[in-house]
Amino acid sequence: STTARCILRLLEATSGQVIFRKLIDGSYLTEEIDILSVSEVELRELRSDLQIVFQDPVSSFNPRMTVGAAVAEQLIVNSDMSRSQRDERVRELLDLVGLEAGHARRYPHEFSGGQRQRIGVARALALHPSFVICDEPVSALDVSIQAQVLNLLVELQDELNLTFLFISHDLAVIRQVCDEVAVMYLGKIVEQSSVDLLFDEPVHPYTQALLSAAPVANPGRQRSRTRILLEGDVPSPIDPPSGCRFRSRCTVGRDEAICREVEPVLKTIRAGHLAACHFPETRVVI
Q1: CATH number for domain 47-178, candidates 3.60.20.10, 3.30.9.10, 1.20.272.10, 3.40.50.300
Q2: C-beta separation of 77 from 126 below 8 A
């Protein structure tokens, strides 16, 4: 979530680059823009391409504003639409996420959690973005409602040709909606690959432990699984251990000198599969 906010400059990063490949109007060419180095004026222009759906659909809305006003707010700030054009766009957006035009006159507290999250999606799509960050968009919802919102996001992605950066702790959700997956530990990416490769052939001990902890629907298979238990506490991200950040809890390299002394960097394990580990080893987590 912190990384996502730095991408959008809702939090200011202290170093590094965030490269956004912006599609040049009327062509298939792109230009590379470092979001962290652009001016406030240039950043405002980029807002139409970069949007976010927040985790909590309650606190992300002003309770004194109707949902129509909340969705239209970005259009007022970042476009030159007339009032009638904004109203029409709000109706289009509500219809796009499965709500009625009359809902625009209601307030956030009059909706269910799933409906509020749909409104959050509508607000994020108001300016025709190409890149949308979904910051745990279904974690605050009931399981039955989660499926509805996830299906909506997948449909919108196909219909509008969107790129999602989807943040979640729910491995089942990740497997359902993602194409590429990056696993983070203490603020660092430790493994990255296609979703199928990561779930079927994980090589980093932390990824393997995560997958072993995820329940499966088959009771017999669940009972026969081997759980990888991580010992100790998560170190402080402010004062991480030397060398590999995961070494104090690792079942593979805890006592290895290289793990204590040298921080691993992402390296290619196989085509399209990266891991930051001195001893990467494929382990099928059944």
Answers
A1: 3.40.50.300
A2: no
